[in-house]
Design brief:
Elements (H helix, E strand, L loop, with lengths): L7 H7 L6 H12 L2 H8 L15 H14 L3 H10 L1 H7 L11 H13 L2 H15 L7 E10 L16 E5 L2 E13 L5 E8 L18 E4 L10 H4 L2 H4 L2 E4 L3 H5 L5 H17 L1 H12 L10 H22 L7
Parallel strand pairs: 1-5, 5-6
Antiparallel strand pairs: 1-3, 2-3, 3-4
Helix pairs in contact: 2-14, 4-7, 5-6, 5-7, 8-14
């Protein structure tokens, strides 16, 4: 964003004693996101301004879309929040003397353009490659896991029906309706390198082959991935069938071993596996706690996959910044 003249509000706000977590987060993301590169991905698909009123700048719309995704707000709510929040306005780079916040309809059309052209996937792939090229992501070992994202189960809507692409599943003694987010995480650093989504009733193991990298030699997973090496898509692939799968055993299997050194050794091995596999849990913490994505925002897999991709891409950038991977002033 271009430099703008400081106002009395800017000067007053700069003299506060401490920054809020929101201020710190937005400052980090503002500095670490490769804005020019991301704008270049959108530009070929953006409105040409030949008909109708002039389109808002790509960067302004992209910043508004990211704020909406990060803080899990509706189109109308993010518009109001930018007017209300100085931190949001500063991130947007808006000067209300010369321009106003894009309205909710404009944001809706911009988001549709991003979804239709798979822009979030382009962002995600570009950031993953950048992490690899700069040595921030190790190779050869992946942790796979999945988490359930709830969807509205109510039928009190225009169609009088639930989302047809979402389904229910039972976890423990509780039923869940929604979708699953499957991720592949670098076992050395915790960065996300692969992501897919399915309906909630799909078993975790069915998507594992889509989360494994070409040069992976070891794969970690919880007991839900037991027997992964026997599946057709794994056994029939020369590279995937040669991988060592370190899958946690079910506790009931360990408890069947007689007490003594044998059981203690097995428990030690399971703790070692779990200590590596734990890196994937931080991914879900960022997705569900940092970004508040515990329930699907839209109907259909395509739109929700787009939201997950932009959030996990942002999670990679945030983890890199917090680890000192990029210099953040």
């Amino acid at each position: 964003m271009g430099l703008r003249q400081q106002t009395f509000t800017d000067i007053e706000y700069a003299r506060r004693k401490r920054q809020t977590k929101r201020d710190e987060f937005l400052k980090i993301m503002d500095e670490i996101i490769p804005w020019e590169e991301w704008i270049a991905y959108i530009k070929p698909f953006y409105f040409d301004n030949k008909v109708g009123r002039p389109a808002r700048g790509i960067e302004v719309m992209l910043r508004m879309f990211l704020l909406q995704s990060w803080f899990n707000l509706s189109d109308e709510a993010i518009e109001d929040s930018i007017y209300d929040s100085y931190a949001f306005r500063l991130f947007m780079g808006l000067d209300f003397m010369s321009e106003q916040v894009p309205d909710a309809t404009t944001l809706c059309k911009f988001r549709k353009l991003l979804v239709d052209n798979g822009i979030a996937e382009k962002f995600f792939i570009a950031i993953t490659h950048c992490l690899e090229e700069h040595g921030h992501m190790m190779r050869g070992c992946t942790v796979v896991d999945a988490t359930i994202i709830e969807a509205p189960s109510s039928t009190k809507n225009k169609d009088k029906s639930r989302d047809p692409e979402m389904h229910q599943t039972k976890k423990g003694n509780q039923w869940h309706f929604g979708m699953k987010t499957h991720v592949g995480v670098d076992a050395g650093t915790g960065y996300i390198h692969s992501v897919t989504v399915t309906s909630a009733n799909e078993h975790d193991i069915t998507e594992a082959h889509n989360l494994i990298r070409e040069d992976d030699e070891v794969v970690y997973g919880d007991s839900g991935y037991t027997g992964i090496e026997k599946r057709e898509e794994i056994a029939s692939d020369p590279q995937k069938s040669a991988i060592e799968y370190r899958i946690n055993r079910r506790p009931s299997k360990i408890n069947k071993i007689p007490e003594g050194l044998a059981r203690e050794f097995e428990q030690y091995q399971e703790r070692r596996k779990s200590s590596v596999r734990a890196k994937v849990e931080y991914t879900f913490l960022l997705l569900k706690r940092q970004f508040g994505y515990t329930k699907t925002v839209y109907r259909g897999m395509k739109k929700n996959l787009h939201r997950v991709q932009i959030l996990l891409c942002s999670a990679n950038l945030l983890m890199c910044a917090r680890s000192g991977g990029w210099r953040v002033a």
